[in-house]
Design goal:
Layout: E1 2-5, H1 17-27, E2 37-42, E3 46-54, E4 63-65, E5 69-77, E6 80-84, E7 90-91, E8 103-107, E9 112-116, E10 120-124, E11 130-134, E12 141-150
Antiparallel strand pairs: 1-10, 2-3, 3-12, 4-8, 5-10, 5-12, 6-9, 6-11, 7-8
């Protein structure tokens, strides 16, 4: 997991060249003005999902993992809490859905919390459990972009 801000003057330093290039490409978009839905950057290898959601109490939500794609979650508007854990810190009876690259689960050991404000991003690598869309102080409408990056681009 990597946590940062698009507004950092030293943005991109320390990231792999592939991730820095993808984030620099995303920064060129008018993120608040993007229409909801899917926006392709490099076909199925890199694409963005723009969404609006209402945050909920963390205890009402489940976490997720992916096996094929990294998630770069970028908050555009509002405040969002994302809970996360380390690989292997979760338990699930739900099967992995290969067509959605998604498995729903519960973080069982050492859950951690991040609070995002507009312009902040967090990168979750495959098999890193994360629970986005949690409320900070109460339910709130948020707008965010989730950039999906196929893991093979980092090899």
């Amino acid at each position: 997991m990597i946590y940062g801000s698009l507004y950092n003057p030293r943005f991109g330093r320390g990231l792999s060249p592939a991730l820095a290039n993808i984030l620099n490409t995303v920064r060129q978009y008018d993120l608040p003005g993007l229409q909801l839905g899917r926006h392709e950057i490099d076909g199925d290898r890199v694409f963005m999902n723009v969404m609006e959601v209402v945050t909920e109490p963390a205890e009402n939500k489940r976490a997720e993992i992916h096996q094929e794609y990294l998630d770069i979650q970028i908050l555009i508007g509002g405040e969002e809490r994302i809970d996360f854990g380390l690989p292997g810190s979760w338990d699930s009876n739900d099967p992995y859905d290969e067509s959605k690259d998604l498995q729903m689960l519960d973080i069982k050991r050492s859950p951690q919390t991040l609070n995002l404000t507009p312009g902040m991003y967090v990168i979750f690598f495959p098999l890193e459990p994360h629970k986005p869309g949690c409320q900070v102080q109460g339910p709130q409408n948020i707008k965010k972009v989730v950039v999906k990056v196929h893991y093979e681009l980092l090899l």
